[in-house]
Amino acid sequence: MQNKKNNKLIPPNEEKRILMHSCCAPCSGGIMESMLDAKINFTIFFYNPNIHPQDEYLIRKNENKRFAQKMNIPFIDADYDSNTWFKRAKGLELEPERGKRCTMCFDMRFERTALYAYEHGFKTITSSLGISRWKDLTQVTECGMRAASRYPNLVYWTYNWRKGGGSQRMYELAKQEEFYKQEYCGCSYSLRDTNTWRKEKGLPKLERGVNFY
Question: Stretch 116-130: mean pLDDT, rounded?
Fold first, then answer.
């Protein structure tokens, strides 16, 4: 269900206050635009302890924060907590993209998002994670719903942000705003696998901190 009526974005139960987990500015920018256009009152929740190394994390966080400030959107800067992420990833180091490690990673980020929502009176959460073509949308959605189900009256908004021109607008806005973007999802294992692939193709290793757009 796309939660649209007469081309207007409608959250579950027509809720007007949303907590949106954001993974990065390129993925969340178009979603932020859409919710502003729909006059939805939302807050960005940045909790991504998977991003490695820390300098990469800070670049992505600050880029997202910069755009949120430009759009006058509240931005919650959550803990980095990378040690806990690596503990939960133990034994999953060789999992492929979209495998069990990704499920663990989504669960961890959504669990913290849902907890913050519950503690601060939000009834609906959503995320920018599912808009990327590199992610399994069903996997992301199931993790979001599982986290929300832990708390009474909390709902995960399952809207498919790729539809209705969402994916196209994501790329357009990223270029327009000159967002920093990398070619790996964020975790050290993704970086390892991406660089292995690049080496096999005769390409140089990724240079962190350089705009991809």
Answer: 97
Query: What domains does the chain contain, in order, with CATH numbers?
Result: 15-200 (3.40.50.620)
- What's residue 69's pLDDT? 97
**Rounded-to-integer distance, Cα 206 and Cα 64, Å:** 21
Find, among 157, 182, 158, 213, the residue nearest to 50 by Cα.
182
Structure tokens that stand for 15 in this block: 């809720």
Distance (Å, whole) CA 181 – CA 173: 12
Q: How many CB atoms lie within 10 A of CB 83?
A: 9
Cβ atoms < 10 Å from Cβ of 44: 23
CB contact at 8 A, 189 and 160: no
Burial 19-36 (b: 16+ CB within 10 A, else e): bbbbbbbbbbbbbbbbbe
**Helix residue ranges per DSSP H, the chain:** 25-37, 54-70, 82-89, 100-119, 137-148, 166-177, 188-200
* pLDDT above 80: residue 3: no
* pTM higher than the cut 0.85: yes
pLDDT of residue 132: 85
SS3 86: helix
